[in-house]
Design a protein that fits this description.
Blueprint (H helix, E strand, L loop, with lengths): L8 H4 L18 E4 L5 H13 L3 E3 L6 E5 L4 H10 L7 E5 L2 H8 L8 E2 L2 E2 L2 E3 L6 H13 L13 E4 L4 H10 L6 E4 L2 H8 L26 H14 L11 H9 L14 H10 L1 H15 L29 H5 L96 H11 L49 H10 L2 H9 L5 H12 L13 H13 L3 H11 L2 H19 L1
Parallel strand pairs: 1-2, 1-3, 3-4, 7-8, 8-9
Antiparallel strand pairs: 5-6
Helix pairs in contact: 8-11, 9-10, 17-18, 17-19, 18-19
């Protein structure tokens, strides 16, 4: 530990090589106090360096001088609380690296970052991301008396990187806050080099408007004359409107670069508009006099509000495109139809043919092509008086057979005369006789076939008998209720002795055999056990099941409920179409 004794001649010899930066102009040495808990080696090096540069180390805190401390330590905090007082403004607290910083700078660094005896608080913004730069910046602030550890809210000076977007945001945020400044990180170095604090100056930005006491450009008679002539040229008649609109005067100001409209630059378009608006009664008289002199026509080219009419675009007749399928639907063309004697007419080779599509009055498509000559090729036919109408002739036609839905399904193609797969042909002829076809395939009943006169083909249309209106049984089967009497009677008539035996065999308790028996008993069969073809109804049900790929039991069940063969066919046809649509 060095004492307050002045250095000897031998001690001051090496200091001649260094400038006495710790001495004032009168040769008085600057006093230093070193924090006691610093390492002894550091204290010895500091004492030697201070002595070489003309300073003096004191054993007690001097009234004026520097106190070298370890920043952030408890001893430094204690020294500040004890010895940092406003009545000793020349007593400074600096880090122990201050001596080396002064040697590098070649002069004693001034304590410029002090205000009212207190260190100025700095905040180093995170926009300065380089840690080495942040450390060097904090040390430079401490060497000049500032405090670099303040928060952004408490700091007086915020240091940030000017090359980032956040810098402009900070400037706009705090430019209205007094005693708060946003500076670049280079600002500290500039202040140290200049030896003082120089904040970035504020410049005046014109907020607009006329300054107090400044006179505005007054309107003169020449300005009003120009304004009236402009309005008279653009809107000669006030009844059309538009004299107080904005666009009229904006167009006037847009002509300011024209040599003939230099006078426009004297005022803004708002001023020109307000001049007319506030003096319209007087200026309208002047405008009317100018209009009476020039006599412009209403809607003349150049007047305000009149623009060139748009060119009329030619209308395009767009034809409605039809689907190719619709063009060919129901259309008969040349070459389609019967060829030979039954062809429609004998036409010459160059006869113009016109295909006709659509349907006739009965809703059916035309069977052949209706060929007509083109309208321009029709020869002129003179109009002749019609002969007197002849009395109507009513031919003797056979009576029309009443439509019977219960028997219409019997109109199926005739079976071959020798039966199916060698089955007895008499049974086949009997079936064909019901359809009105003989064994030769032509219409009409066979000569040797006798139809039972007691066969009532309209039995299905007859009303139910009184026995069927039994109050104990419903007319139809509801849910799991027993079937009505007419169903039981029909089952008794249709079932033979073999069906009774089969039904008896199916009453066993074997579940597997009962399922098979129910299928055999209820399913229609194409042939009876004796080789005779089954009933036409059963054959039709089998055909529907095969055609639309359903089981005969399903078709039989639906037919038993409805009794309509065509309805049954349409039902399963629609079901198959629906399944194809859903599952492909």
């Amino acid at each position: 530990m060095a004492n307050s004794v002045p250095p000897t001649q031998s001690q001051s010899a090496p200091s001649t090589l260094l400038e006495k930066i710790f001495q004032d102009s009168n040769g008085i040495a600057t006093k230093f106090f070193i924090q006691k808990d610093l390492p002894q080696q550091n204290q010895a090096e500091l004492t030697e360096a201070i002595s070489q540069m003309g300073g003096r180390v004191e054993s007690k805190v001097p009234r004026a001088g520097f106190i070298l401390t370890q920043p952030g330590s408890a001893e430094e905090e204690r020294l500040r609380l004890c010895w940092l007082t406003p009545d000793r403004p020349e007593r400074y607290f600096v880090p122990w690296t201050y001596v080396e910083a002064c040697r590098v700078a070649g002069s004693m660094l001034k304590q410029i970052f002090i205000q009212n005896g207190e260190p100025i608080k700095f905040h180093i913004h995170p926009s300065i991301a380089n840690m080495n730069a942040r450390t060097a910046l904090a040390q430079r602030i401490q060497h000049s008396g500032g405090d670099p550890n303040a928060t952004q809210l408490d700091a007086r000076v915020i240091l940030a990187d000017p090359n980032t977007e956040v810098f402009d945001h900070l400037v706009k945020t705090y430019q209205g806050v007094p005693e708060k400044y946003v500076e670049s990180y280079l600002w500290v170095k500039k202040c140290v080099e200049k030896g003082g604090i120089y904040y970035t100056p504020l410049v005046y930005k014109n907020p607009g408007g006329r300054r107090p006491g400044e006179e505005r450009t007054q309107f003169n008679e020449e300005d009003e004359e120009h304004l009236c002539r402009w309005i008279a040229a653009k809107i000669p008649y006030k009844e059309t409107g538009g004299r107080t609109g904005n666009r009229l005067y904006q167009q006037l100001v847009e002509l300011s670069n024209d040599p003939e409209y230099v006078w426009v630059q004297r005022h803004t378009w708002q001023s020109w508009r307000e001049r007319y608006k506030k003096n319209s009664d007087r200026l309208d008289v002047m405008i009317a006099a100018i209009v009476a002199e020039t006599k412009p026509a209403l809607g003349e080219k150049g007047q305000y509000g009149y623009v060139r009419m748009a060119e009329e675009k030619p209308k395009r007749n767009r034809r409605k495109t039809r689907n190719p399928a619709e063009l060919t639907r129901g259309v008969s063309v040349v070459g389609v139809g019967v060829v030979g004697e039954n062809r429609v007419g004998n036409l010459r080779p160059d006869y113009p043919l016109v295909p006709v599509s659509g349907r006739n009055d009965h809703g059916q498509p035309y069977p052949q092509a209706h060929l007509h000559p083109a309208p321009q090729d029709n020869p002129h036919i003179p109009v002749l008086p019609h002969p007197p109408p002849s009395p109507p002739h009513i031919p003797n036609l056979p009576p029309i057979r009443q439509f019977d839905p219960a028997l219409d399904y019997l109109n199926i193609p005739p079976l071959p005369s020798n039966g199916v797969n060698g089955v007895n042909g008499d049974a086949v002829n009997a079936v064909n006789a019901v359809n009105g076809t003989s064994h030769d395939g032509h219409g009409g009943h066979s000569a040797d076939l006798v139809i039972d006169p007691n066969l009532n083909q309209n039995a299905a249309n007859l009303p139910p008998t009184s026995a069927e209106f039994d109050p104990d049984f419903p007319a139809i089967r509801i849910g799991t209720a027993p079937p009505p009497p007419w169903a039981l009677q029909k089952r008794k008539v249709s079932d033979g002795p073999e069906d009774d035996e089969t039904r008896k065999r199916c009453r066993s308790n074997d579940a597997s055999s009962s399922g098979k028996c129910s299928l055999r008993g209820n399913s229609p069969r194409a042939y009876q056990p004796n080789g005779v073809p089954a009933h036409v109804v059963d054959q039709t049900i089998i055909g529907i099941a095969k055609e639309f790929r359903f089981t005969t039991e399903e078709v039989q069940e639906y037919y038993d409920r409805t009794g309509q063969m065509e309805a049954t066919r349409e039902r399963f046809m629609n079901m198959r179409k629906k399944l194809i649509e859903l599952f492909g």
